[in-house]
Amino acid sequence: MREQGRKKVSFFRGKTHFYQDKRHSISVDLVLFLCRVRGIKRSSRVIDLGAGFGFLSIVTAIKYRCGVTALERDGEMLEMLRENIALNSVQDLVKIVEGDVREARKLFDKDSFDVCLCNPPFFEEEGEGIHRAGDTTLQDFISAGSYLLRDGGYFNLMIPSFRLTEAIELLLKYNLPPRFLTAVYPTAERECRLCFVASIRNVTGPLHFDRPLVINNVDGGYTQEVSRLLEGFLS
């Protein structure tokens, strides 16, 4: 593996370890997203669309002891993904599939999974930088999730607030009606920045709004609720 530009970090009091690079790094947002993921139990078949270096896949497998399929196409990310799976000793739980989200119908049978995790690129335009879409769109991710999930399966999406309307329109189009929504705020004084949306395939019903998550106090430290979530997730 190439050493330049990557570093090893530990999370959850040393219970997990990851190599990451400058393009993609672990943030508190990802941990909070996992705290709000719906539908996973030990028997679940889970797929992580665009798994990157494996944070969502690996922590999910450790937390629930369930099988997770990590779909990724980028060669450098796949290299780190393999390294991180070995580093956390979850080779028996996390399976790598090398491929493109847009090719999901060629890679998997329909209705193959119970839960889908989706942290797609935030920004539509191509170019350097973190979380830019390149040639894969939000519609590609949502369409793939709808194909892969059984009826009653859960699609868990992390999306910036400025794309929430677009996301909901696509979720409805692909038979993934939103059922749970969490708004995430940097501080109580600032506007909502992120949303976590959980849909259930082909199961309609009311949309439940969770209590908003506020990440930081005015002094920059984590709020009491966020600290509790971070401390307790893998306890």
Describe this structure in words.
- The protein has helices at residues 28-35, 55-64, 75-87, 104-107, 138-148, 164-173, 224-232; strands spanning 6-11, 16-21, 45-49, 67-72, 94-98, 113-118, 149-160, 178-185, 194-200, 208-209, 213-214.
- The protein has 235 residues and is α/β, with parallel strands linked by helices.
- The protein has one domain: Rossmann fold, CATH 3.40.50.150.
- The strands form two sheets. Strands 3, 4, 5, 6, 7, 8, 9, 10 and 11 form a nine-stranded mixed β-sheet that branches. A two-stranded antiparallel sheet has the order 1-2.
- Mean pLDDT is 92; it is low at 126-133.
Tell me which CATH architecture applies here: 3-Layer(aba) Sandwich
SS-based class: alpha/beta
At CATH level 3, the topology is Rossmann fold
The proportion of strand residues reads 25-35%
CATH superfamily: Vaccinia Virus protein VP39
Give the total of domains: 1
Counted beta strands = 11
Helix tally equals 7
Please summarize the sheet with the most strands. 9 strands, mixed
Explain briefly what this protein structure is.
This protein is an alpha/beta fold and 235 residues long. It has helices at 28-35, 55-64, 75-87, 104-107, 138-148, 164-173, 224-232; strands at residues 6-11, 16-21, 45-49, 67-72, 94-98, 113-118, 149-160, 178-185, 194-200, 208-209, 213-214. The protein has a single domain (6-124, 134-232), classed as Vaccinia Virus protein VP39 (Rossmann fold, 3-Layer(aba) Sandwich), CATH 3.40.50.150.
